[in-house]
Amino acid sequence: MKSFSPLFPLFPATLSLLLGCQLLPLAVAAGPEVAIERDEDGGLRLMRGGEPFWIRGAGGTKHLADLVRCGGNSIRTWGLESLDERIDGKPLLDYCQANGIAVTVGIWIGHERHGFRYDDPAQVREQREMVREAVRKHRDHPALLMWGLGNEMEGPTSESGDPRIWRELNRLAAIVKEEDPDHPVMTVIAGANAAKIKGILEHYPNLDVLGVNAYGGASGAARAAREAGWTKGFVLTEFGPTGHWEVPSTPWGAPIEPSSFKKAAGYYATIELLEEDDDICLGSYAFLWGQKQEVTSTWYGMFLETGEKLPSVDAVSYAWTGEWPDNRSPRITGIESPLREAVVAPGGEVTVEAEASDPEGDELQWEWSVVEESRDRKVGGDREQVPPAIDGAVTGGAGKATVRVPAKPGAYRLFVTVRDGQGGASADNFPFQVAR
């Protein structure tokens, strides 16, 4: 799933100043060397500055203070434009370095579905030049952990990937290593498909770390990669709730979103199970440490658009540290209504009841809304338009609401959101259809 101005002027590793006839070198500080080593038991370890580094990471550049408080130590980006973002007045990499966050810097590699052609010499040459320039620009930053060379460029629905893509990635990885031998190269694919991995083994020997985006089968992704013959480093680069393509759907094709409680449990279980695969696994990146519209506004984000954290954040915090955050998010424990996953006639009124609780006993603020089902479905995490909410379709308060069924036939969702006023929230929804 899932993107350039310099952070500081480029300097070579040393500068020579001519003073009289004497050349004096002026050293420029470089970041810690990152390497992958095999331990005495035959397992792999990611070493950063000579110390073992297990990735406790998340995808995205938002809410980074929360990431640190939760025990996270790394973020993953998808494209170079993320490095232009400023947080508390600092460029992203500088902010991360000051706060102990290591960064897998994503370099977006062209997708054929977006118009990139691997048989076009001009596009291929331009992409190679872009990769070389990016590595030269950022290779010495001390926050750099790895290079994320591409994300699902084989296509999220591809069973094996085009060998031309793997061969070109091999050439790009050689450029990265030529410019920066001190940081591993990782490429991310969609799912631990055996045919893809065999193609990479055959055509992409320069790859150091295989990144895999997986959802329903996330906890078994490292094992699947190993069974396909992968023996180098492995990182679970996206994981989270069961994907919208993996869940049951209504008769009219609306996927049924897992509850916020089930999502949180899935995050925790995946992190715990991954540690059993530490012979090749180097850690993971939870998706998404932020918010986005993808099928719904809540399916994949671990925060609301208004900034409150959802229960999934608490779950990864507990998995990373063994302790809950000082303030845990509230929990919606059930939603009952004859409207749920039903087909109803337009214009009537239907009652909805929900239960929610807060671990600290905070008073909850309730929000209800009816939203049209998204019709702007994309693949691979491409940007989607936010569907409109229906004004006046629902009124309610704590635990109960009345829905005025829209007059316009179509597919809709009812959302219930609770907030604790302390930065925590929970949000669930169900689909329904209006038909004459």
- Compute the average pLDDT: 92
Query: What class would the helix/strand composition place it in?
Result: alpha/beta
Quick one: biggest sheet? 8 strands, parallel, barrel
Q: Output the CATH homologous superfamily of the largest domain.
A: Glycosidases
Number of helices: 8
What is the domain total for the residues?
2
> What's the helical proportion of residues?
10-25%
Poorly predicted sequence stretches spanning 5 or more consecutive residues: 1-28
CATH class of the largest domain: Alpha Beta
Radius of gyration: 24 Å
The counted number of beta strands is: 23
What name does CATH use for the topology of the largest domain? TIM Barrel
- The 3D shape can be described as globular
Task: Report on the architecture of this protein.
The strands form 6 sheets. The protein has an 8-stranded parallel barrel with strand order 6-7-10-11-12-13-14-15, surrounded by 5 helices. The chain has a 4-stranded antiparallel beta sheet with strand order 16-18-21-20, with no helix packed on it. Strands 17-23-22-19 form a 4-stranded mixed beta sheet, with no helix packed on it. It starts with 13 loop residues before the first strand and ends with a strand. The chain folds into 2 domains: 14-321, Glycosidases (TIM Barrel, Alpha-Beta Barrel); 331-434, Immunoglobulins (Immunoglobulin-like), CATH 2.60.40.10. 21% of the residues lie in helices and 29% in strands. The protein has helices spanning 64-69, 92-98, 121-138, 163-179, 194-203, 221-227, 260-274, 311-321; strands spanning 14-19, 22-27, 34-38, 44-48, 51-52, 55-59, 74-76, 86-87, 90-91, 102-107, 144-151, 185-190, 209-213, 233-238, 281-286, 331-336, 343-344, 349-357, 365-372, 394-397, 400-404, 410-419, 425-434. It is built from 8 helices and 23 strands. It has 436 residues and is α/β, with parallel strands linked by helices.
